[in-house]
Amino acid sequence: MYKKMVVSDEMRQPLSWSAPDFSLDPFDLVVFPGGHEKGVRQIIDSPIVHKLMVDYFPKTKKPGKKVVGAVCHGVMVLSESKDANGVSVIRDCNTTALPARFEQVAYWGTRAFLSDYYKTYGHGSEDVEAAVKKVLANPAQFKASLNPGAFIVEDEQYNYISARYPGDAEPFAEEIIKLFNSFRRIV
Hints:
Number of helices: 8
Order of helices and strands: HHEHHEHHHEEH
Radius of gyration: 17 Å
Distance between the termini: 33 Å
Shape: globular
Number of strands: 4
């Protein structure tokens, strides 16, 4: 399958999300995988991506069939995607993201030899959990688990699934597949 993919037109001539005529409308799924590397800021802070998500995210409202998924810092793309009134697209959603304790343990446990590698915005910056919670209608919408076992959150109003960190990637992907399969069921 990989060999077939790498010779496809889509792989050889990918679309540019920063092109003026780019739209997410043709896509049924948008996933933001996140990561703590400083390069992820180009997506988290992008006014272009914010505009795309302000347009796309409402289309995930149930019973719609468009889906958004986000893991770890990827949730910050959504928390930072705000409408003209400054309201985040996930304001009314249940969500998770990288828990502050996970981020702090990684940062403080490696700071002596990796500096601020585990802080996307550098030493002293806000934790992902705090950044996400402050845009929610109620901080209780942020669901967290410090158990390293699989943990994902599926919102009740939107086809939106979130996860905390790479350890949740497999159940996150499985839940997205289940959601898409449910669209094909005859009720």
